[in-house]
Amino acid sequence: LENTSHIPKRNVHYDTKINNVMFHTATDKAVCVIDLDTVMPGYISLDFGDLVRTAACSASEEETDLSQIFLDLEFYTAIYDGFLEATGTLITAAEKEILPFSSKLITLELAIRFLTDYILGDKYFKTNYPSQNLNRARNQIALVKSMEEKLLLRP
Fold it and tell me: Comparing C-alpha atoms, which of 30, 74, 35 is closest to residue 52?
């Protein structure tokens, strides 16, 4: 998109990891979204992208074997189709068009944030060992590479 000024700001979660959804123990159906401290005006496509980053990745962001990290296209497709079904006419054509790009953008942003935190001495993200944020950055970059390869197959 050359001009994104027509993409509306909405109230968004901005931390749409799958672990911020509570599921019913008997039915496994989503009950509600939690961890609302990051809700603010923003772009719905970035919420979609962060959900893809966490739910459609083959491994957690803690995986250090980069060969194990890839975009699971089946999960991506389910998230994409479910997102469009759930948002119905709420989402604009411009927002729909940038969904795949938003997945890559938010993943790359997090890679940069992990790398920055590593360089600054691990002051923001909690770590369990000295190079954990560096490994997380590498992990997220591997996921971006996979997204770039696989999302060419999808609008």
Answer: 74
CB atoms closer than 10 angstroms to residue 79: 20
The whole-angstrom separation of Cα 98 and Cα 94 is 7
Cβ(110)–Cβ(140) below 8 Å: yes
**The two structure tokens encoding residue 71:** 């975009």
36-66: per-residue pLDDT in tens? 877 888 888 999 999 999 999 999 999 999 9
Sign of CA dihedral 62, 81, 10, 102: positive
> What tens digit of pLDDT does each residue of 60-104 get?
999 999 999 999 999 999 999 999 999 989 999 999 989 999 999
Contact by Cβ (8 Å): 136, 56: no
- For residues 48 and 102, the answer to whether their CB atoms sit within 8 Å is yes
Cβ contacts of 41 within 8 Å, gap of 6 or more: 9, 10, 11, 12
